[in-house]
Write a structure and sequence with these properties.
Elements (H helix, E strand, L loop, with lengths): L4 E2 L3 E5 H9 L8 E4 L2 E5 L2 E11 L2 E15 L2 E10 L7 H14 L4 E7 L2 E6 L1
Antiparallel strand pairs: 1-2, 2-9, 3-5, 4-5, 5-6, 6-7, 8-9
């Protein structure tokens, strides 16, 4: 993903950045595909919806997720999550592991995350 704004200590990612990464197929290199994807960044939470969603061997119809991201130990943690179908709650730790693995590979140390209307600000250490 190419963040729309990157300074030495701040990365800003917009809803359109995420949608563009998905539409361009960039996310498929990580095994992620989605149809009719909806992304919304709201103050202190984000939502993801899709008519169909695939991640590796997992294929789901009518997917929805709401949650928040917080910085923890240089990585990210998903908190206050709601997911449908509910069985997908089991993959949240796997998603966190995948995200944090990518952050480590990129040598990024997350110090803070703020979800605002339409965007996410990530503060690097």
């Amino acid at each position: 993903m190419n963040p729309s704004d990157k300074t030495q200590n701040l990365i800003t990612i917009t809803e359109s950045d995420v949608a563009s990464a998905i539409a361009s197929g960039e996310a498929s290199q990580y095994g992620f595909t989605a149809a009719d994807l909806g992304i919304a960044f709201l103050p202190d939470k984000f939502t993801v919806t899709a008519s169909s969603f695939s991640y590796g061997l997992i294929h789901i119809r009518n997917f929805s997720f709401t949650g928040n991201l917080v910085a923890r130990n240089g990585g990210v943690k998903l908190v206050n999550t709601t997911v449908s179908p509910r069985v997908l709650k089991l993959i949240i730790p796997i998603a966190e592991l995948a995200i944090n693995s990518q952050l480590q590979n990129a040598h990024l140390n997350i110090q803070g995350i703020q979800i605002l209307a339409g965007l996410v600000e990530i503060i690097l250490g």
